[in-house]
Amino acid sequence: MARFLITFPAAAMVAPADEMAAVDRDAHAVIAQAKAEGVYVFAGGIDGSVPPVRVSADGTVTEGGYPSARRLDGGFAVLDLPSRNAALSWAARFARACRCDQEVRAFGFDPAA
Question: Matching InterPro entries, A to Z (predicted)?
């Protein structure tokens, strides 16, 4: 098993306002399926009302994230899956539910973690 990150940026969520209740319902249904199948690790959305900060090795706190990195926002799910193909299948479920494309990334395995 490997852990996969399935995400979408907030700008990708372009469903009409009158569909948002259905999007919410459908996305939560996919999460419920993941839990029922025992592959759910965690999921959520980045809280855009809380600005990011960057903390250096000496403890200095700087407002904002890395200047060169794209803004991190939107929704995400982490699932424990047997293969990349399984991750792509789950991403398709989320894409249908959220009405937007999903990105899939694999976490590197660290036996000490």
Answer: Dimeric_a/b-barrel (IPR011008)
Angle (nearest 5°) at CA 102 between 111 and 8: 90
pTM for this predicted structure: 0.88
The pair of three-digit structure tokens given for residue 49, joined into one six-digit string: 């009302």
What is the C-alpha separation between 83 and 75, in angstroms, rounded? Answer: 22
Q: Residue ranges per domain, the chain?
A: 2-46+73-106
Q: Please write the tens of the pLDDT for every residue from 78-102.
A: 999 999 999 999 999 999 999 999 9
Q: What b-and-e string marks burial along 32-71, b requiring 16 or more CB atoms within 10 Å of the CB?
A: eebeeeebbeebeebeeeeeeeeeeeeeeeeeeeeeeeee
Class at the top of the CATH hierarchy for domain 2-46+73-106: alpha beta
Give backbone dihedrals phi and psi of 82, rounded to 5 degrees, phi first. Answer: -75, -20
Kindly give, in sequence order, each residue whose CB lies less than 8 Å from that of residue 108, ignoring residues fewer than 6 positions away.
none
Sheet holding 75-81, edge to edge: 40-45, 75-81, 2-8, 103-106
Tallying the residues shown for the chain, one arrives at 113
